[in-house]
# Entry
Amino acid sequence: MTQSGIKLFNFQKSPVILKWWFFLFFAFLTPTQVLILFFSILLHEMGHAFMANKQGYGVKEIGVDMFFGSCVFSSPYIHERDSIKITLAGPMANLLLCAISFPFYYLNMGDIFQQIFNLNATLFLINLVPIYPLDGGSILRDILIIKIRRKAIEISAKISLSLSVISAGILFYHGYLIGGFFALYFGYLALKELKYI
# Structure
């Protein structure tokens, strides 16, 4: 036990904690529904953790709380490109549960499979709504950061290239060969930046 909940097991060396607040669900749902909700949230967070570890970022803790889960990363900064993959892995885990339960649900092999399918389809769709801090909102934010940063680098590189060429022309005209070559080199670096973009 911890102050925040019960440690259940380790997933890829990260402790999985069932938070105390989660037990309030027993006041509103049947034990079967609580169990389905628990595994659905858990698998969602394990999806985040699995992808984070795959991308080389450590995970301090995986938590299952009331209405949501949490995946606490060891790294204070995660690159937006990696963050999109990590964030998307959570809803994809719910989609996987939908795919596994659907044949049983379709063949009418038990109410539990219908509940699993419906809950995970709901979690998948809700999490992709672009409202922060839902996964969809985080993904939208990361995409916008990448796009805006890319545009900022492009504008900066174009200004650098233009000023380097102008500076080189002026310096060569006045006989400052070394300065002119330096300006051309800066222009070359700016051109490389543009090509990289």
